[in-house]
Fold GTP cyclohydrolase FolE2.
Amino acid sequence: MNAPERFFLADVQSSPDERQLAIHQVGVRGLRYPLALFSDRGEVRHTVATVAMSVGLPPEVKGTHMSRFVELLESRRSPMSMAGLQRMLEEMLVRLDATSGRIEMTFPWFITKAAPVSGVESMLDYDVTLVLEKRAGNYAETRLEVVAPVTSLCPCSKKISDYGAHNQRSHITLVVLLRAEMSIEALVRIAEEEASCEVFGLLKRPDEKWVTERAYDNPKFVEDLVRDIALRLMDEPRIAEWTVKSENFESIHNHSAYAEIHGRNA
């Protein structure tokens, strides 16, 4: 046995497959990796993402090269923008000789917020999912999903009560298909501005008075929340399609109130 033969390892994945069945998605999922992204202010934010990466496999090919997905993540340690993530998708398709593929990242995103009166700063976390996908023969698409915690105050409770009104923490979920780059922070602001009040990680007594009165002066049903946010998204030129969901964790019931609306921009 000569030296070249001794070190030859068969590439089983690239061998032909006789079943002639294309696979729509094959890859890896459940990967947890450090992720550094630029905020809307150009600052670098560090987080840890749970990642799923896949490509389409032609019917004549036996398998994909799983190690190349991890190699791609290892090569992308520097901070990235949305455009950089899109380039990573294109590189994945080249590395795996594929015409379709998908990268999904789910991660907590921290935004520094200043309290409304005292100005004291604290960080608040938001759940974010970013999906980059390209189907064969189509342009790449970017979907951005954020879950923003807010306060909602019941208009009915305010109307019928001699004093006070019940309020609750709500989760606003926005899912958008982007036409142009849009920051996580910009999407969060839309949700927070249309709520009865936004929430903060740290409040002093003057701030607590402010947020309590802000919510009382701005009551909204779960239906109001999704409709008002939908109107904002309909006027956003960077968005092609959108979905708004609101789940209000009721303070006077042992169940949630829920509403959902979706649409497409011209």
Q: What stands out?
A: Helices lie at 3-6, 67-74, 82-95, 155-160, 184-193, 205-216, 222-234.
